[in-house]
Amino acid sequence: MKQGALRDLEAAVVACDLCPRLREHCARVAREKKRAHAAETYWGRPVPGFGDPRARLLIVGLAPAAHGANRTGRVFTGDSSGAWLYAALHRSGFANRPESKGPRDGLRLRDVYITCAARCAPPGNRPERVELERCRPFLAGEIRLLDKVRVVLALGRVGYEAWLKASLWWEKLSTAERPRFAHGSRAVLPDGTIFICSFHPSRQNTNTGRLTPAMWKRVFTRIRADLDRSGVRPDQRAI
Length: 239
Known about the structure:
The protein has 9 helices and 6 strands. By secondary structure, it is α/β, with parallel strands linked by helices. Strand 5 and strand 6 (194-198) form a beta hairpin.
């Protein structure tokens, strides 16, 4: 039942047309394309989350990349950020392969679900506040349905704020009580959820050394340790 509800939510994401600016931008990018992908048919629609419905790890990013997920239709797929993310998931035992190329590439995720604060690729990678607010019910729905989640990884300040607001912790906690955003920060919320923050693995961060491979690896080492301490999921099998 829950898996069906999650599929319904994903379908609602794909059908969303609440933000004309974003829909026009995604459609235009899909028409004009990038020279390297000129022969491909772009997805060009809002991008749903992707992963294991029984995930204990939830990852919240910023938004689809214009020539990444907006092209492939899978979150964090087809760009450099995705290359960093899926390689880390594979090393940590969450994915059966180290890269994500598209929906038919055979990639399977175990114990992790990946989503974003905004579901459409925004101009300049900067969604407007009202657009994030319109998208928030989708993230809130995922949070309700993914009821096995024990660890949340927020990528970047936008992902950090989006999850805290969608989960209602932004309202429940005072300003002083809220987890702070900093790379590698870790907080345990009153319900036991472990909330970890990281710089986003965007080119802006990885090419400048603001986020290094060693820093990124430590984030996932910590996540794996937290999940291992919480016990192995009963249905966990090799992927």
